[in-house]
Amino acid sequence: MDIFSAMKQRKSARAYLDKPVSRADIEEIFKYAGLAPSAINLQPWEFVVTYGEEKDRLVRRLQKVHAERDVSCGPGTSAPLPERFSKRGSKALKAMEPQVSKLNLPFNEFVEKGSCSFYGAPVAIIVTIDRVFPQIRYLDVGLSVSYLLLAAHAKGLGTCPIGLITAYADDIADVLSIPEEKEIVLAISLGYADEASPANDFKTDREPLSEIFTWYE
Ligand SMILES: Cc1cc2nc3c(=O)[nH]c(=O)nc-3n(C[C@H](O)[C@H](O)[C@H](O)COP(=O)(O)O)c2cc1C
User: Fold this and answer.
1) 175-210 b/e (C-beta count within 10 Å ≥ 16 → b)
2) How far apart are the CA of 148 and the centre of ligand 1, in A?
Protein backbone atom coordinates (compact mmCIF):
# COMPACT_ATOMS: atom_id res chain seq x y z
CA MET A 1 0.00 0.00 0.00
CA ASP A 2 1.43 3.38 -0.92
CA ILE A 3 1.61 6.14 1.69
CA PHE A 4 -1.02 8.33 0.03
CA SER A 5 -3.60 5.52 -0.03
CA ALA A 6 -2.92 4.75 3.63
CA MET A 7 -3.36 8.42 4.56
CA LYS A 8 -6.58 8.73 2.60
CA GLN A 9 -8.14 5.48 3.80
CA ARG A 10 -7.20 5.46 7.48
CA LYS A 11 -10.01 6.23 9.85
CA SER A 12 -10.69 5.52 13.48
CA ALA A 13 -12.20 2.10 14.17
CA ARG A 14 -14.73 1.83 17.00
CA ALA A 15 -15.71 -1.85 16.66
CA TYR A 16 -13.31 -4.76 16.37
CA LEU A 17 -13.39 -8.43 15.42
CA ASP A 18 -12.65 -11.00 18.07
CA LYS A 19 -9.50 -11.95 16.17
CA PRO A 20 -6.02 -12.07 17.65
CA VAL A 21 -3.19 -9.89 16.36
CA SER A 22 0.21 -11.55 16.27
CA ARG A 23 2.97 -10.17 18.42
CA ALA A 24 5.20 -10.09 15.32
CA ASP A 25 2.71 -7.79 13.55
CA ILE A 26 2.41 -5.57 16.61
CA GLU A 27 6.17 -5.27 16.95
CA GLU A 28 6.52 -4.46 13.25
CA ILE A 29 4.03 -1.60 13.60
CA PHE A 30 6.03 -0.21 16.51
CA LYS A 31 9.22 -0.37 14.47
CA TYR A 32 7.50 1.94 11.97
CA ALA A 33 6.24 4.20 14.78
CA GLY A 34 9.84 4.52 15.91
CA LEU A 35 10.90 5.82 12.50
CA ALA A 36 9.18 9.17 13.12
CA PRO A 37 11.41 12.25 13.27
CA SER A 38 12.05 13.94 16.60
CA ALA A 39 14.10 16.88 17.82
CA ILE A 40 17.77 15.83 18.16
CA ASN A 41 16.49 12.30 17.57
CA LEU A 42 15.45 12.17 21.24
CA GLN A 43 12.57 9.77 20.41
CA PRO A 44 10.64 10.84 23.52
CA TRP A 45 7.72 8.47 22.82
CA GLU A 46 7.17 5.35 24.89
CA PHE A 47 4.44 2.75 24.53
CA VAL A 48 3.00 0.22 26.93
CA VAL A 49 1.20 -2.52 25.05
CA THR A 50 -1.45 -4.59 26.79
CA TYR A 51 -2.92 -7.76 25.40
CA GLY A 52 -5.03 -10.68 26.63
CA GLU A 53 -5.61 -10.88 30.38
CA GLU A 54 -3.54 -7.71 31.05
CA LYS A 55 -5.70 -5.71 28.65
CA ASP A 56 -8.84 -7.15 30.23
CA ARG A 57 -7.55 -6.20 33.68
CA LEU A 58 -6.96 -2.63 32.50
CA VAL A 59 -10.44 -2.44 30.93
CA ARG A 60 -12.07 -3.72 34.14
CA ARG A 61 -10.37 -0.98 36.13
CA LEU A 62 -11.25 1.74 33.61
CA GLN A 63 -14.88 0.65 33.52
CA LYS A 64 -14.99 0.68 37.32
CA VAL A 65 -13.53 4.18 37.65
CA HIS A 66 -15.63 5.47 34.80
CA ALA A 67 -18.77 4.22 36.55
CA GLU A 68 -17.63 6.01 39.72
CA ARG A 69 -16.27 9.16 38.08
CA ASP A 70 -17.86 9.91 34.72
CA VAL A 71 -15.93 12.10 32.30
CA SER A 72 -17.10 13.06 28.86
CA CYS A 73 -15.23 13.47 25.62
CA GLY A 74 -14.34 17.10 25.00
CA PRO A 75 -11.63 19.30 23.56
CA GLY A 76 -9.97 19.76 26.96
CA THR A 77 -9.69 23.54 26.58
CA SER A 78 -10.04 25.94 29.49
CA ALA A 79 -11.98 28.48 27.37
CA PRO A 80 -14.81 27.91 24.87
CA LEU A 81 -13.55 27.05 21.41
CA PRO A 82 -13.70 29.62 18.61
CA GLU A 83 -16.66 28.80 16.36
CA ARG A 84 -14.65 27.48 13.43
CA PHE A 85 -13.27 24.72 15.67
CA SER A 86 -16.47 23.89 17.52
CA LYS A 87 -18.26 23.57 14.14
CA ARG A 88 -15.79 20.90 13.09
CA GLY A 89 -16.44 18.94 16.27
CA SER A 90 -20.20 19.13 15.78
CA LYS A 91 -19.82 17.97 12.19
CA ALA A 92 -17.82 14.92 13.28
CA LEU A 93 -20.44 14.03 15.90
CA LYS A 94 -23.21 14.45 13.32
CA ALA A 95 -21.42 12.01 11.02
CA MET A 96 -21.19 9.45 13.83
CA GLU A 97 -24.58 9.79 15.49
CA PRO A 98 -26.85 8.13 12.87
CA GLN A 99 -24.55 5.12 12.74
CA VAL A 100 -24.21 4.81 16.50
CA SER A 101 -27.98 5.04 16.91
CA LYS A 102 -28.20 1.75 14.98
CA LEU A 103 -26.42 0.12 17.93
CA ASN A 104 -29.28 1.16 20.24
CA LEU A 105 -26.90 2.90 22.61
CA PRO A 106 -26.99 6.52 23.76
CA PHE A 107 -24.24 8.31 21.87
CA ASN A 108 -22.29 9.49 24.93
CA GLU A 109 -22.42 6.04 26.45
CA PHE A 110 -21.09 4.53 23.24
CA VAL A 111 -18.12 6.93 23.14
CA GLU A 112 -17.34 6.98 26.87
CA LYS A 113 -17.80 3.30 27.68
CA GLY A 114 -16.36 2.42 24.29
CA SER A 115 -13.25 4.51 24.90
CA CYS A 116 -12.80 2.95 28.34
CA SER A 117 -12.94 -0.52 26.83
CA PHE A 118 -10.81 0.35 23.79
CA TYR A 119 -13.92 -0.41 21.75
CA GLY A 120 -13.35 -4.12 22.27
CA ALA A 121 -9.99 -4.14 20.46
CA PRO A 122 -7.64 -6.97 21.41
CA VAL A 123 -4.71 -4.58 21.88
CA ALA A 124 -4.66 -1.47 24.06
CA ILE A 125 -1.66 0.82 23.78
CA ILE A 126 -0.79 3.44 26.37
CA VAL A 127 1.39 6.28 25.08
CA THR A 128 3.67 8.02 27.56
CA ILE A 129 6.32 10.72 27.64
CA ASP A 130 8.81 11.39 30.40
CA ARG A 131 7.70 14.45 32.39
CA VAL A 132 11.22 15.86 32.08
CA PHE A 133 10.38 16.96 28.53
CA PRO A 134 8.79 20.36 27.79
CA GLN A 135 5.35 20.45 26.18
CA ILE A 136 6.79 21.01 22.71
CA ARG A 137 8.20 17.47 22.75
CA TYR A 138 4.63 16.14 22.84
CA LEU A 139 4.63 17.08 19.18
CA ASP A 140 7.30 14.46 18.56
CA VAL A 141 5.14 11.87 20.31
CA GLY A 142 2.23 12.85 18.07
CA LEU A 143 4.37 12.30 15.00
CA SER A 144 5.22 8.82 16.18
CA VAL A 145 1.55 8.10 16.87
CA SER A 146 0.75 9.16 13.29
CA TYR A 147 3.32 6.75 11.94
CA LEU A 148 1.85 4.04 14.14
CA LEU A 149 -1.71 4.62 12.91
CA LEU A 150 -0.62 4.57 9.28
CA ALA A 151 1.59 1.50 9.68
CA ALA A 152 -1.28 -0.35 11.38
CA HIS A 153 -3.60 0.61 8.54
CA ALA A 154 -1.07 -0.58 5.95
CA LYS A 155 -1.02 -3.95 7.75
CA GLY A 156 -4.80 -4.20 7.55
CA LEU A 157 -5.37 -3.25 11.19
CA GLY A 158 -7.72 -0.66 12.63
CA THR A 159 -6.89 1.86 15.34
CA CYS A 160 -8.53 4.58 17.37
CA PRO A 161 -6.59 7.19 19.34
CA ILE A 162 -8.31 7.52 22.73
CA GLY A 163 -7.64 10.66 24.74
CA LEU A 164 -10.57 10.26 27.11
CA ILE A 165 -8.75 7.73 29.25
CA THR A 166 -6.13 10.29 30.31
CA ALA A 167 -8.73 11.40 32.88
CA TYR A 168 -7.99 8.08 34.57
CA ALA A 169 -4.21 8.27 34.18
CA ASP A 170 -3.57 7.47 37.86
CA ASP A 171 -5.56 4.27 37.63
CA ILE A 172 -3.84 3.23 34.42
CA ALA A 173 -0.44 3.94 35.99
CA ASP A 174 -1.44 1.86 38.98
CA VAL A 175 -2.63 -1.15 36.94
CA LEU A 176 0.40 -1.11 34.63
CA SER A 177 3.01 0.06 37.16
CA ILE A 178 3.85 3.10 35.05
CA PRO A 179 6.23 5.21 37.13
CA GLU A 180 5.32 8.71 38.29
CA GLU A 181 7.94 10.33 36.02
CA LYS A 182 6.02 9.27 32.93
CA GLU A 183 2.94 11.13 31.78
CA ILE A 184 0.16 9.18 30.08
CA VAL A 185 -0.85 11.26 27.08
CA LEU A 186 -2.99 8.96 24.95
CA ALA A 187 -4.24 5.43 24.43
CA ILE A 188 -4.71 3.67 21.12
CA SER A 189 -6.92 0.69 20.39
CA LEU A 190 -5.57 -1.75 17.85
CA GLY A 191 -7.11 -4.77 16.16
CA TYR A 192 -8.94 -5.97 13.09
CA ALA A 193 -11.78 -3.53 12.49
CA ASP A 194 -15.29 -4.97 12.26
CA GLU A 195 -16.21 -3.49 8.90
CA ALA A 196 -19.78 -4.77 9.23
CA SER A 197 -20.46 -2.70 12.36
CA PRO A 198 -22.40 0.57 11.94
CA ALA A 199 -19.82 2.06 14.34
CA ASN A 200 -17.30 1.90 11.52
CA ASP A 201 -19.66 2.86 8.73
CA PHE A 202 -18.78 6.53 8.40
CA LYS A 203 -15.80 8.68 7.59
CA THR A 204 -15.20 12.17 8.88
CA ASP A 205 -14.31 14.78 6.30
CA ARG A 206 -11.69 17.49 6.40
CA GLU A 207 -11.66 21.23 5.91
CA PRO A 208 -10.63 22.56 2.51
CA LEU A 209 -7.04 23.66 2.17
CA SER A 210 -8.14 27.31 2.22
CA GLU A 211 -9.07 26.88 5.91
CA ILE A 212 -5.68 25.64 7.08
CA PHE A 213 -3.19 27.01 4.64
CA THR A 214 -1.77 30.48 4.00
CA TRP A 215 0.51 31.11 1.07
CA TYR A 216 2.95 34.04 0.92
CA GLU A 217 5.04 34.61 -2.15
C1 LIG B 1 -5.51 13.00 20.47
C2 LIG B 1 -6.78 12.29 20.07
C3 LIG B 1 -7.67 11.89 21.04
C4 LIG B 1 -8.84 11.20 20.68
N5 LIG B 1 -9.66 10.73 21.66
C6 LIG B 1 -10.72 9.95 21.32
C7 LIG B 1 -11.50 9.35 22.34
O8 LIG B 1 -11.27 9.49 23.53
N9 LIG B 1 -12.54 8.55 21.94
C10 LIG B 1 -12.83 8.34 20.62
O11 LIG B 1 -13.78 7.61 20.32
N12 LIG B 1 -12.10 8.91 19.63
C13 LIG B 1 -11.05 9.69 19.95
N14 LIG B 1 -10.25 10.24 18.96
C15 LIG B 1 -10.56 9.98 17.54
C16 LIG B 1 -11.09 11.24 16.85
O17 LIG B 1 -12.44 11.40 17.20
C18 LIG B 1 -10.92 11.05 15.33
O19 LIG B 1 -9.56 10.93 15.03
C20 LIG B 1 -11.51 12.24 14.55
O21 LIG B 1 -12.91 12.31 14.70
C22 LIG B 1 -11.18 12.12 13.05
O23 LIG B 1 -11.70 10.90 12.55
P24 LIG B 1 -10.78 9.80 11.89
O25 LIG B 1 -9.73 9.38 12.89
O26 LIG B 1 -11.73 8.67 11.57
O27 LIG B 1 -10.13 10.39 10.68
C28 LIG B 1 -9.11 10.95 19.30
C29 LIG B 1 -8.19 11.38 18.32
C30 LIG B 1 -7.04 12.03 18.69
C31 LIG B 1 -6.05 12.43 17.62
Assistant:
1) bbebeeebbbbbbbbbbbbbeebbbbebeeeeeeee
2) 14
